[in-house]
Amino acid sequence: MNPVIMPAMPAKYNDQATVLRKLVSEKKDILPLGDKITGVRSIAILSGKGGVGKSNVAVNLALALADKGLDIALLDADLGLANIDILFGVMPKFNLGHVIRGEKELSEVVCKVGERLSIIPGGVGLRNLAELDEQGQAWMMDRLSSLEEDTDLLIIDASAGIHKNVLSFAMSSDMVMLITTPEPTAIRDSYGVLKSLYQAAKGAISIGLLVNMASDEKEAFLVAERIISASEQFLSFKVPYLGCVLWDSEIRESVKKRKPLLLNEAESASFPYFRALAQKIYESSEEGQLSKKLARRDTFLLRLLRQAENREKR
Ligand SMILES: Nc1ncnc2c1ncn2[C@@H]1O[C@H](COP(=O)(O)OP(=O)(O)OP(=O)(O)O)[C@@H](O)[C@H]1O
Ligand SMILES: [Mg+2]
Hints:
This protein is α/β, with parallel strands linked by helices. It has 13 helices and 8 strands. An 8-stranded mixed sheet has the order 3-4-2-5-1-6-7-8, with helices on both faces. α1 packs across α7.
């Protein structure tokens, strides 16, 4: 596919590409692409099969983490059916497409949905972002860099399956949360994604498994065990189990009401599961010391940029 070059790129576009390339090459302390990183600052949420609950988990996990005092940005990176805005009952006017076309600043696209939670609608713009040439990506990274400076943790809600853009998001994140349900099709597809990711990253990737819509914890554990033992047997890698969220009709209701479950006054059965998941992620940050004030070794966006560079060189 030909790279998309957006017509309205400002003239300084080339300079910014050069500056960013320099920035990346000067960052000698940046870990090699895909290296395991202990402090989690970006999490890409993936699945094999669609409809397993990625967006709902992303939203409620983001709320649970914001509740713990972290500043969270939730990037709607589903290139097919972006819908984080619908789940929050908001109608953002602009998306990343406007930023890419140079029509809006990132600050005008970021939609604050809570004191410590912002969503960034990807829209069709993100499809273009993924197809931008090297200079276009660099220009975009420059515009997006403030995002990670203002955020403790970036959560990326990706499309289902392992399209090359999803792979880029996954490889650029500190951690991948792979979601499956107990359905055999979802289990098989999630193993497929796990295998593709693991092989693409040559093993140097941090992946955790979450089972959603299980009828009870035992079922969730048995589902996880099937994937864990397959990964051990065929990939010689033991994928960590992050936990589960049980089937909860309240989640369906929350979607209909366009109000995320964790914003309900009354607790429902899923609350403790989202809190436990948030706690696990919190602990995956640098011993719970996650703070934007700490120096960053590397960021999601810098890695995404480097991926674009590597693609160009091939
Ligand atoms: N734990 C749960 N219990 C019951 N229903 C759930 C649960 N989690 C998600 N759902 C429902 O499953 C449906 C799909 O959820 P969601 O949109 O979050 O999945 P997705 O993986 O993001 O889908 P897509 O691949 O299309 O982006 C929604 O109707 C949602 O209400
Ligand atoms: Mg979704």
